[in-house]
Amino acid sequence: MTPLPRPPVQIAWVTSDLDATESTLSALLGARKWVRMPGVHFTPDTCSYRGEPADFVADIALSYAGDMQLELIAPVSGRSIYSEFLRDSGPGLHHICVEAADPADFAAMIEDAAAQGAGVVAQGVMPGGIRFGYVSAVQAGVPFVEIAYIPAEIRAVFDYIKEQQR
């Protein structure tokens, strides 16, 4: 059976300087307004990293280029997929994200990725109920793909941010 197409809905960068990355991506991609969410806390009771409970904080900025969400992540504290990337690779393109239709689809997509050799590196639930899982198949040249389920309440926030670009 051929899987359904799963076009990316987001491109994300990890940076140590949100101002510089926002400015550059605004100039290159035409993003007009960035919405910042400082101090997002990923807690050990809802998040894991490399199979262990995760406890970290990141500053996040969101914008859009057309229908593509742009996400910037600046690690603040704690050990995470983002701080590891910044330490090992420096600032740069980190992942693309594909969206699950519902929680059951999210679970199926995570299972399918693992069956295809893309193991789960980090996963959890963010404030607002966003479920996320980062899968990786470095041996195949796929560093990170994020699989996410976005509840309707958060979708409305994303739609508002997108409308601010017009």
From TrEMBL:
User: Does the UniProt entry include the keyword Lyase?
Assistant: yes
Matching InterPro entries, A to Z?
Glyas_Bleomycin-R_OHBP_Dase
UniProt GO MF annotations:
lyase activity
Stored Pfam families? Glyoxalase_4
Top-level taxon of origin:
Bacteria
Listed A to Z, the keywords are: Lyase
Q: What is this protein called?
A: Lactoylglutathione lyase
Organism of origin: Mycolicibacter algericus DSM 45454
